[in-house]
Amino acid sequence: MRLKDKVAIVTGSGSGLGKAIAMRFAQEGATVIVADLNEPSMAATVKEIETGGGTARGHRIDVTSQSALRDFMADVVASEGRIDILVNNAGTTRYRAFDAIGDADWDAVLALDLKAVFFCAQAAAPHMVRQGNGKIVNISSSLGTGATPHVGALTPGAASAYASAKAGVIRLTQILARELGPSGVNVNCIAPGFFLTPLVTSSRTAEEMVEHIRFRTEVEALWWDEDRQQWQIQSVDGDGNRDVSYARVVVTAAGYLNRPRWPDLPGRNTFAGTSIHSAQWDPSLDLAGKRVAIIGAGCTAVQIVDACVDEVEHLTVFQRQPHWVAPRKRLTDDVPEHRRFLGRHLPHYANWHRLKSYWGTADNNYPIILQDPEWAKDHLSISPANDVLLQMCLEYIDRTFGAGTELAKKVTPDFAPYGKRIIRDPGGYYAALTALRIRDELGAIDRIVGANLVFGVYDLSGTPSNVQSRPSDVPDILDGRGMVSLVEAYLPGRTVLEARDPAYSPLYADLTGLPPALFTVGHADHLLDDSLFMAARWHAFGNEAELAVYPDCIHGFTGFPMELAKRANLRIDDFLRRCFGT
Fold first, then answer.
1. What per-residue confidence (pLDDT) applies to 116?
2. Which of 95, 162, 504, 550 is catalytic?
3. Buried b or exposed e, range 38-62, using 16+ CB within 10 angstroms
4. Torsion angles phi and psi, residue 483, rounded to 5
5. Pseudo-torsion of CA 378, 379, 383, 384, nearest 10°?
6. Is CB count within 10 Å lower at the N or C end of the chain?
7. SS (H, E, C) 411-441
8. Which domains are present in the chain?
9. What is the pLDDT of residues 113-142, one digit of tens each?
10. Catalytic annotation on 349?
11. How far is CA 196 from the centre of its chain?
């Protein structure tokens, strides 16, 4: 418990935010002094803390009285021995239009929201200075920072007095921090945003607030009405009821990617397997042992591949066009403990670090997207700065897939970096594409029929030649023993991770200078993917290669009808005669 043996005073802790702070302090082991003018509320908070196993004392106090506060602080020190923490939380507000605020309203708000903060700190500080340490936390508001408009949330009235007082609290905190810091007393300020507390509901009840919220409602269209000088808002609720309303101001906060976009594939709704969009991911979905197809190769697809590659039996990635992928530069995205410590204890460090992180990918990268017309004339990149990134990505491709290999060509874009949104490899995407259980299809899917994905098959020259239907639920290799993984079949003794390394995998080796090869496979053979892939790579390295597909055959030469076997042997003889003259 982080506050064990500490004594903490929380003003205005009979309800709302102050009560929540007091409860949490008690959970962390502090002795909490519940200071509030409302005695029943104060007593209820003390009882709730004690019921939960914490320690609390109740003090009824008017925090706007300077003399009463001095006596109160002295009483706490006399009974508890010290004051470690003071949270100045007590506050009030008056929702009044600017021209309707009178002396009483203004004085009441500033007395409790600003003057009381000063008096409480003034009364507690001498005791903390004598101890050599202490913490004062002043509660301001986002209204005081200017981060939100000076209007009471969901209310028609303004909050100029409240906002002025809370802005004063922020400046007062800065002054007290400089004055008391050398004596070991830290003074900080918190400026929370809007949430439902008794202070808010004193001017608007929860029921009244709900009247201003439309649940389960979708905005379908916005039109500017020139005659009204207002936005026309067309909406529909969860029951299909449509409505048209008007407003002077509309804030679109749903985001550009707030709904999934499904590919326009004939037969998509007839797919017999599980079909899911990444924007509507089901966390209960189990991909272990499944044959999975991912349509797309953007940022989200990259992360899904990285996360599921070690679970699935087989994974096919369909990409319309490759993206530039930058290598991961750090081993983990976890925030180290020393940075967490600085964020908690060093003023403004968290804000500085957030700005630094943003600058690194924003302003710092700005020169990369600026075109140098002369450079761009004879380079794929658009400038020397852009070329630095391009070369880094190319080096990553060559290092992972092997320079000049077919797979390297597949993942190399034909446009400059940042021509599309660049991707950062989460750590295992490129490595996953080198795995034997993964195929990266260049052709787009044509249609979906039942459980089959129908896509363009490429002949050895790379030109689409026909359409091939591949079952989506068959294993990679079948023999008399049942299913055998490709890693076991091709790389005995190698692990799946080793199989991702082009140095180990025969599918990604340098095939230069190898003799002619004839790949035979059944039309429904589970090795059709691999046979097609190997034949294409054999041919890409300048070697003679043919792929023979036998529609009536289930499995290579296994189970051939005699007539079909004779025809296959004749084709093999013809191939050898043409290649070797014998």
1. 96
2. 162
3. eeebbebbbebbeeeebebbbbebe
4. -80, 140
5. -110
6. C
7. CCCCCCCCCCCCEECCCCHHHHHCCCCEEEE
8. 7-206 (3.40.50.720), 214-247 (no CATH), 295-432 (no CATH)
9. 999 999 999 999 999 999 999 999 999 988
10. no
11. 27
